[in-house]
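Handoff note, outgoing to incoming analyst
You'll be picking up this chain. Sequence as last confirmed:
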Amino acid sequence: MSSKQIRQSRIKEIITSKKIASQEDLLERLNESGFNTTQATLSRDLHEIGIVRVPDESGFKYVFHQEETSQAIKQIIGMEIINVLHNESTIVVRTLPGRAQGVAIYLDRLPDSNIIGTVAGDDAIMIIPDAHGNVDKVVAKIKEIMA
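Most recent structure output, in case you need it:
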């Protein structure tokens, strides 16, 4: 098994055994387990594994993305989006502070989204559509999520 597979396996164990509220918490747990990794690597791992951050009664927690919870997650994501701006080639989504990465992961995973990729900061996401002609489709899909 590769070191990446071992690390991702440990991430799954941590997520299922403890309430993890932030990537910093998860990085700390990984370090305690002997995995020295960067936040960027952890973020990619979470994306690949299908782990998303969702609100709960005491803040936030990381969970496995599941189809049966997708409608609830869609509603939460919709509440976290403040607005959508665009020009002929690029789309910018403004989110609540600290939620851009979670929203970006959700948008990246949308089927038939016409999205090549996203770049997320703290409260803004830049979206690159697959074609200039699909900007309006992507914007409409995001506005549907917001509804």
